[in-house]
Each structure stands twice: as structure tokens, then as C-alpha cells.
Amino acid sequence: MRNDGETIELIERLARLVTNEGHAHGMKPAQWEALRFLARANRFSRTPGGLTAYLGLTKGTVSQTLMSLERAGLVEKTANPGDGRSVRLDLTEKGRALLPLDGMATIKQAFEALPLSLRASLGDGVAALVTSALAARSGRAFGICRDCRHFAADARGSGQHYCRLLKQPLEDAEAEQICQEQEAA
Amino acid sequence: MRNDGETIELIERLARLVTNEGHAHGMKPAQWEALRFLARANRFSRTPGGLTAYLGLTKGTVSQTLMSLERAGLVEKTANPGDGRSVRLDLTEKGRALLPLDGMATIKQAFEALPLSLRASLGDGVAALVTSALAARSGRAFGICRDCRHFAADARGSGQHYCRLLKQPLEDAEAEQICQEQEAA
DNA sequence: TCCGATGGTATTGAGTCGATACCATATTGG
DNA sequence: CCAATATGGTATCGACTCAATACCATCGGA
Asked: Which of A76, A150, A170, B112 is most deeply buried (CB count within 10 A of its CB)?
């Protein structure tokens, strides 16, 4: 049977496969990662600093990747009202159009072909690994807004929720996005 | 609950964490991958071509990584007797001494902390993903020699096995190494 | 109003990576 | 036996990645 060492080798191999998929359509792995992040993150997290924390890189490195994406017309920067230092990032139409061409689709298909129970336990296992590896390097979870302990769901169905930490109202759609500040409820 | 999309995000994140671990001790992720491969592969696979197939990169790229490792004194190249084009790769003592410092140890610890049943199903899930992602890009499995259909176990306990494909005798220890030619029994 | 903390950018140097071109050594077919 | 071709590797180029360092502007508090 498979022992622990073999599973670790398979995880390394999977990581390499995921990285290799990142060369689809003339882009680079780091560029795809940035694109995917910007498609998933809420407005409080969609900044160079947010992406830096998500990827666990240095801010200089991330700044360069973002410049290359901006040059390519995939990402837009706008000044952040309320903090003159900070920058708001948004995908352009062109950037958004690229998302479905993501090479991760291959891996996603392989995953969806697995039996339901295996998908579930694979999810549990990967979640546990990510959580503890993240803890070891004091990284942030970037979980989903609605699962956060600062999230106050709207009780009256107006479609308006609230973040108790940032003291900001939240649209319905935003509750499903990932957030820099998220802490499990 | 976690849906499929969230699990895919976690897999991307795990891949990034694994890559980031690859900067331990002033080395680069690709260099660690090469080192680990050379520690695990048998003599038939321990060549630039073998590493190229394992990583799914181009041979030029791998050639450069190997040159940097040779410059650093971690890898030795010797001519392959029997084929003047081919090169045999071996870890030096210095290269072997580096192995225990691998940053993957962090992930390995996290893995070993998981309950046994979760470890098993995580292994099954990752194995299934790797197998089908590999098939999609017609990559080789690089499984363990003893699990290969060309492997003939020694029946009389002399410690000598045999590869029916390469028509070569195999030491006991070699049966546990990974091989370019391996096909599941 | 300083002063340190925070969010970003600029620059440098080593490494990664695909693409292309190239070389030497097999292997195959006539 | 000897071309033609295939195979295993290396060399070079250009764009990108990444950490490290230095730097700048804005923010926040004492």
C-alpha cells in the first residue's frame, strides 16, 4: 500500500502539475494566480498588499507581477478613496474574459470526475494541510466572508449584510467573496 | 459546507505553499525538486531526460537547473557507459546532506498530524488527481519499481530481482526506487 | 507636529522557463 | 556499409519570478 512518504511525493508532483498548467495562453503561473485572486477577493482585499499576503511573497515581487498585468491590460489600478497610500485593483473586461481559459480547468475536471465521497475527504485533507501550513508561517486564511466571525447576516432579507470589523455594509454577492480579514466563526 | 470550487482553490493554495517552501537554504524550488528526484530515482532514470519527463518541463530548462546544481557541488555528472549521448546523474555527499533540510518537512509534519483515515483518503484523492492530470498531458507515472509489470521478484531470496523490460538485474534497494519506465502491474 | 508604521514602487542579481538552434552519438533502412 | 533520421544534451535569448534593499508618500498616534 501507499505509505506517508509516497503521499508526500504525490503532493509535490501535484504542486508541479498545477504550476505547469500556469503557462496557458502565454501567461505565467504567478500571473494566473493574481488573476484568480482578483476574481475572488472582495474590495477590502483586492490590493497589492492583499495579494502579497495571499501568495506569501514579498511586496516587491507582487508589485512587478501586477505591473506586467497592467501593461497587458488585464488589471486596472485606481486610487483608494480614504487612504492615499493604497491602490484598488480590478480586473478589466479583457482580464475577466481570460478567466475561463485557466489551465486549472484540467485539474478541475479531473477532480470532478472523482466519486463524491473521495472529493469530500480530499477537500477535508487539503483544507487541514493548508490550515496548518499557513499557521506555521503565520499566513492568513482568506476564507469566505459569510463564514467569518465579523459577518452579520441581514435578518430581514434586504440583501444588505454588515462587517462588524470594518464597519461596512456588504452586498449579497460580497458575502461569497474571500477576505483578507476573515476569521472562522 | 465546502463546494468543489473551494476545494480547487485550496489545491491552488497548497501548490503555492509547496512552491514557497522551495526557497529554504538559499536554493530554488526547481533545485529542490531535482534534488529530491535524484534521491528517489533508480539508475535508469537518473538522467537529464528522466528529470525532464518527471517535471514536465523542456530539456533546456532542466539542463540549466542541473548546471547550477553541478556548479554548487550538489550533483555529479558521469558519462553513461553504453550510450555516449547520455549522462548519469548522482547526488554528491554535499547534495545528500542537504536533503533533510528540505522545506517540504513542514508540509510533511502537517500531514503526519492528520488522523490515519484522513491521511489514507487524502492519499487516494491526490493519487487519482495526479494520475488523471498526468494522463491528460501524456506524462509518465514514475511509480515504484516493485509495483511494475516488468518487475520479476527474486523467488529464492538471493536479494537479486530482474527487470524484464531493460533485461537488467536489480538490487534489493533498487526495487523501492522510482523509475521512468514503470507501468502499474 | 514630529515619528514610526504602513502601502507601494524602483532596482539589482540569480534563477526559471519556453523556444530555437545546435552538436554528438545512436539507430534504422536501403 | 552508409546515408537519413531519431535521440540525449547543451547554448543562447528574452520575458518573467523572486528576495533583498532602498526608497517615497501617506497615515496615525503621542
From this structure: A170
Secondary structure element (H or E) that encloses residue B10, with its range: helix B4-21
B112 and B169 co-located in one domain:
no
Query: B156 and B101, same structural domain?
Result: no
Q: How many Å from the CA of A165 to C1' of D30?
A: 25
Nucleotide nearest to B69 (CA to C1'): C15
> CB–CB of A183/A149 below 8 Å?
yes
Q: In this complex, which of B7, B126, B132 lies closest to A10 when CB atoms are compared?
A: B126
Let me know if residue B129 belongs to a domain: no
Residues B106 and B172 occupy one common structural domain: no
Please tell me whether residues B61 and B118 are part of one structural domain.
yes
pLDDT tens string, chain B, 185 residues long: the values are 688 999 999 999 999 999 999 999 999 999 999 999 999 999 999 999 999 999 999 999 999 999 999 999 999 999 998 899 999 999 999 999 999 999 898 899 999 999 999 999 999 999 999 999 999 988 999 999 999 999 999 877 777 999 999 999 999 999 999 999 999 98
Rounded-to-integer distance, Cα A16 and Cα B131, Å: 13
Measured CA to CA, the distance from residue B117 to residue B114 in angstroms comes to: 8
